[in-house]
């Protein structure tokens, strides 16, 4: 499976993806699900993918090809809306081509993307692109998107994230959300790719891959676990009247 | 939807259920999903239900009828294993009777139960009864079961609950798990019924219904939220090297 999160903050964007793919429990692989398009000073666009790997890889390959052939591509589109449209259209191309063949074999060919970034002249924006190729945009009321195995890691995001959350705080929250997800679903796994984009910087800020046994990730996993137990211990005992 | 949890501890059992039912978002109802069978000094059996309400109500009605007709029933079965079998058989009776009619209208007739308790002469036990009428039993390795909307509330249980957890601690953890679930899925809702059974007491111990605006439930929701934010704030900032 997959778990990806994108958070739209006043301060910028936080984007993260896991790297596990599986076709059944006996076929597990590691694939990076984050693709970064950057032209420093002009734009940063980050694409996170979930779903059928052949479909998502075909989409990123076609996007790359459009770039090489000087067709409209993610480094030339005039706005993030156009970027999301281009990804959606490319996904439709792939599914028009491969979908009928997948269907013949009862294979689920769906895919989804989170696209976030900023293009010079616009503010930072975040989109959730559906397998149908259409999409929605994050707003201050709903400042984050998840794709893939989203439920385990949602409560901590709901409790912490608002559009006013600081970048580093949101990044830690996202890592905790990944930890919660990976504990409950083995089809989501390390490495986790994390990227923080600072508003109006128009370049990739902090980027980090957390591998297995990463000392920082291990530390926050441990400290979070201990912290939760402490907070739980401090809750008053139930009163049984009423 | 529904959310129910049963926890098997060395110290006893914690069982909890929400009360929301829905047939689409425009038809929401409140039904208690916890049924308690008690003969003080001999047994306590608690049944939590999820799934199609007509099916689960039919099961509890038939169980009640068996009791009135002096057939084998939950107050006479010699062991918890027999109790789980009886519930499974009753569920099969209902689905044999109603299933084909539901299928004609493409209605999902599935149901699931958590059954926990203790019968004199046995230790406390906990079962998860599937819609097929068969079941599994909790062990110290996997000391809890959830039915219904289980993902949102699972991480906190995984982080806290072991068979050595104290009853009150587990009860608080279960309430937090309900809070996490209710925040993320509006089809799970208050009132929450909570029951703690103390090992070898052979009577219902503490039992409590948390209604909307319950001061204790509101307090722990608030304190938990604040505690989580504090723990997150205390986590060291990511190091971006590596």
Could you walk me through the main structural features you see in this protein, from its secondary elements to its overall organization?
The structure is a homodimer of 242-residue chains. Chain A has one domain: Aminohydrolase, N-terminal nucleophile (Ntn) domain (Glutamine Phosphoribosylpyrophosphate, subunit 1, domain 1, 4-Layer Sandwich). In chain A, helix 1 packs across helix 2 and helix 4 crosses helix 5. A five-stranded antiparallel sheet of chain A has the order 10-1-2-11-12, covered by helices on one side. In chain A, strands 5-6-7-8-9 form a five-stranded antiparallel sheet. Chain A has a two-stranded antiparallel sheet with strand order 3-4. Chain A is 36% helix and 28% strand. The first copy, chain A, is α+β, with helices and mostly antiparallel strands and 242 residues long. Chains A and B meet through helix 3, helix 4, strand 12 and helix 5 of A and helix 3, helix 4, strand 12 and helix 5 of B.
Summarize the structure.
With 242 residues, the first copy, chain A, is of the alpha+beta class.
| CATH fold descriptor of chain A | Glutamine Phosphoribosylpyrophosphate, subunit 1, domain 1
Query: How many strand units of chain A?
Result: 12
Question: What oligomeric state do these chains adopt?
Answer: homodimer
* Order of strands across the main sheet of chain A: 10-1-2-11-12
Q: Assign a percent range to the helix content of chain A.
A: 25-40%
Q: Which structural class should the secondary elements of chain A be placed in?
A: alpha+beta
Order of helices and strands of chain A: EEEEEEHHEEEEHHEEH
Strand content of chain A: 25-35%
What is the CATH C-level name of chain A?
Alpha Beta
Specify the CATH homologous superfamily of chain A: Aminohydrolase, N-terminal nucleophile (Ntn) domain
CATH architecture group name of chain A: 4-Layer Sandwich
Low-confidence stretches of chain A: none
Main pleated-sheet profile of chain A: 5 strands, antiparallel
Of all protein chain pairs, which has the greatest interface, and how many residues does each chain bring to it? A-B, 47 and 47 residues
Shape of chain A: globular
Q: Average pLDDT of chain A, to the nearest integer?
A: 94
Number of helices of chain A: 5
Gyration radius over CA of chain A: 19 Å
The total tally of domains of chain A equals 1
């Amino acid at each position: 499976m997959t778990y990806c999160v994108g958070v739209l903050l006043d301060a910028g964007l936080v984007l993260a993806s896991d790297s596990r793919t599986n076709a059944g429990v006996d076929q597990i692989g590691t694939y990076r699900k984050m693709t970064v398009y950057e032209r420093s000073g002009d734009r940063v666009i980050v694409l996170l993918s979930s779903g059928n790997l052949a479909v998502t890889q075909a989409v990123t390959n076609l996007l790359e090809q459009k770039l090489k052939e000087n067709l409209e591509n993610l480094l030339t589109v005039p706005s993030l809306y156009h970027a999301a449209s281009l990804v959606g259209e490319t996904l439709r191309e792939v599914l028009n081509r491969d979908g009928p063949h997948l269907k013949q074999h009862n294979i689920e060919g769906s895919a989804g993307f989170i696209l976030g970034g900023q293009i010079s002249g616009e503010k930072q924006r975040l989109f959730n692109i559906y397998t149908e190729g259409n999409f929605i945009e994050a707003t201050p009321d709903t400042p984050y998107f998840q794709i893939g195995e989203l439920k385990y890691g949602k409560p901590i995001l709901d409790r912490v994230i608002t559009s006013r959350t600081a970048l580093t705080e949101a990044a830690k929250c996202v890592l905790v959300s990944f930890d919660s997800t990976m504990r409950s679903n083995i089809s989501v796994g390390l490495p986790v790719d994390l990227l923080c984009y600072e508003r109006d910087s128009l370049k990739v800020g902090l980027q980090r891959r957390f591998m297995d046994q990463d000392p920082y990730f291990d530390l926050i996993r441990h400290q979070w676990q201990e912290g939760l137990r402490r907070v739980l211990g401090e809750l008053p005992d139930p009163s049984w009247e009423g």
